[in-house]
Amino acid sequence: MSYERKVERAHPALITMILDDSGSMSTNMTGTSDARYQWVERYSGIILKELLARCVEVSGEKPIVKPRYYLDVIKYGSSVETWQNGPNGNEELDIGEAAKKFSDNGSLGLGAKLGGTDAAAAFQLAQSRIEKALQKDRFKDSFPPIVFHLTDGESHTDAEPVAQQIASLSSSDGNVLIVNGYIGTSTQLTYKDENDFPGYLTEQEVGPNRDNLRLFRMSSVMPNTMRENLVNDGIFPAIRENVRLFFDVRTKEMLKHVIQVVGSGGSRLAR
Length: 271
Description:
By secondary structure, the chain is an alpha/beta fold. It has helices at about 35-55, 95-105, 120-135, 135-140, 160-165, 205, 210-220, 225-230, 250-260, and strands at about 15-20, 55-60, 60-65, 70-75, 80, 95, 145-150, 170, 175, 175-180, 245-250. The chain has a single domain (about 15-270), classed as Rossmann fold, CATH 3.40.50.410.
């Protein structure tokens, strides 16, 4: 499977964001005075605007949104919630609808208010929604769905088995990709910033922490097409081949770049 299908209106991309909204997300991001969930909100807004910009065309003097991305947002703690209520029963929103909802509400509704951390339940919901999406004509021949999971701590349930099931799902262009972003620094990988970030290739680089290792194993191997785009666009210029889509988040700027992985097609995406 090639992972070479361009993102275009005829073959839009589905992005499923699984966001930890447990109580610990109220803890400040290291080196800042803002809570972790606030950084997630801020940079989610940035990526929404970027994806929207890739979908806007000007006809005469009027900009027209031609959806090339669809977004599904799942928030979890002890319970699981979805952010959107789509026109067909709480399904994914096209990027225009998602951007408007974000703008109208001013947020994704995060607030570190969902208690504990049941990651398995969140991934189970994601699995059922992605299975349903892949039966639709708009997604079955598109670049495969990308799951973006952002968490800051331990889960009292193991999401690895269901993550493996999700990763076995596929469009005609490739298997579903799972990205894990961990807001923490307890790894063995040494680097200064995004410019020399080499990516995580082995469990030894992740370190002995059980929860970190679980997230690493849940993460897909980065397709070469995605790696080339990240290098050529200067997002992670030093990233190695065959690394996992696993990222620790050591500064607020790294958080921004991790989220950019979701839209890593860059300038080579069809407009």
